[in-house]
Amino acid sequence: MVYAGIDVGKGWLDLALLNLDGQEGEAGKDRAKEQQLLGKKSKESKKSDVIEHYRFNNNPPGRESLVKLLLTRRPRQVVLEASGIYHLPLLALLLEADVAAFLANPYQVAAFRRAWGARNKTDSQDAVLLARFAKAYEGRLERRLPPPAKLAYLKRLLVYREQLIKRATMIKGSIEAAIWVVEAANWGTEAANRGTEAAGQTTEVTSWKAEEAVGQERNRETGQGQVAEQGGEQEAERDGGAEQDRDASQILSWLKEDLQRVRERLSEVAQEINRLLSLLPEAAVLQEQKGVGPQVAAAVLAFLPPALWGSPKRAASFSGLIPEQQHSGSSLHRSRLSKKGPALLRKKLYLAALVAVKHDPEMQAFYLRLLSRGKKRKQALLAVAHKLLRRLTGRLKAYYREQGQRQGDDQRQGRGQKQSQGRKRGHKQNCERGCQENYKESCEPRHGPSDEQNNERNNEPSNEHGELSNEQGYDDRQAHRLVTKQVLEVVEVDGVAG
């Protein structure tokens, strides 16, 4: 028996084949034969596990080579760990090749690694660990089929929308910072202008004592040079402030243009999400619940696997909205939320809970009851989100049950029509075999008149209107024959009596 584990990375794929039917070497076989010849009983040696390692590039040629090797070795199970988006092409290729591939939960694999006692963590050892995981959980793993194309596209749209929202928030922060920079630049320019005006005033050089003409002239030249020097420095400062003001204003205008483009793209993404939801009948079923709008319905349909749509408990566990309790002996730890699952789904459900406690009387009563028992506001809202998710999956379950009943009724009705038609055909064949000449009137309501009677009726003239249906013409002729027969009987009786 062979089990395969694949550790998926961005650059390459590590494959480990665990062969449980490992054979002994030639030396071991020779020793066993010698012991049998000497009449000694040989102990049955345990078969050792044979592990084979392979590495392929995570590109189309490398993935095809890996699949060809797996088709040659025919492992019982192939397990690979979910690694963001890098495992999706390989998983689709394995399922297309009809390989028994399973996608393991990283949380379960990490717990299995601790239970196995693995000390090191490398790519090759992770592949071996996944192969042993496949052997240990054989028969208990569920095949994770890729979601339909519409749901996969819807999920990518929701993720892209969240990225656009974060980008818009970041741009808004940059705009606020740029506004402060522009204001600071304007203040600096005004201050520089005021300083230039004060320094540009005429400076008079006076002397309290009578000096010689040469000394006075020297002092006058020195004062004029200092004034000219100060004026040049302040003019440069004023030019630098104006340039800084222009730079800050240019960046601010660019940021505003970026924000406008992001908002337009958000509007386009919202329209595309609404278009996809109009193609999914489950979206209308989910939006019947108070507090659930297009975004919440899209998140539930996109992030929950279709296999969990009709399972409330498993859906709540998958989304991470269940509490984790930690009780051991006398030590009691406060339970916390699991948070093992898509965070965006929990976010949307939390926002839906905020709306539901205001507009849904039942959810509001449940929320107030939790608050009266001492729960905090956030804990109560998370409990409402959990209850809301179970309600949504319950609605989907009821919808599928109703659709199944309708489909079953249609199938039963179709089978009934086919059986009725078959009985009519069989009865007509039996009647035609038993009474070819005398066609029974009792058989006619079931399968209509015979071909000979239809031919006779077609040859007869029509009524005064020029048109006569087969059924009306047949009834009139039957009545005419019956009346004629009665008249002849009366005539015969009268003739006998006379």
How are the SSEs placed, and which strands pair?
Layout: E1 2-8, E2 12-19, H1 26-37, E3 50-57, H2 60-73, E4 77-81, H3 88-96, E5 101-104, H4 106-116, H5 123-136, H6 149-199, H7 213-279, H8 281-286, H9 294-303, H10 312-319, E6 323-328, E7 331-337, H11 343-359, H12 361-372, H13 377-434, H14 444-447, H15 451-459, H16 470-497
Helix pairs in contact: 6-7, 6-9, 9-11, 10-13, 11-12, 11-13, 12-13
Offer a few descriptive terms.
7 strands, Nucleotidyltransferase, domain 5, two-stranded antiparallel sheet, single chain, 498 residues, 16 helices, five-stranded mixed sheet, 9% strand, 66% helix, globular, alpha/beta, disordered C terminus
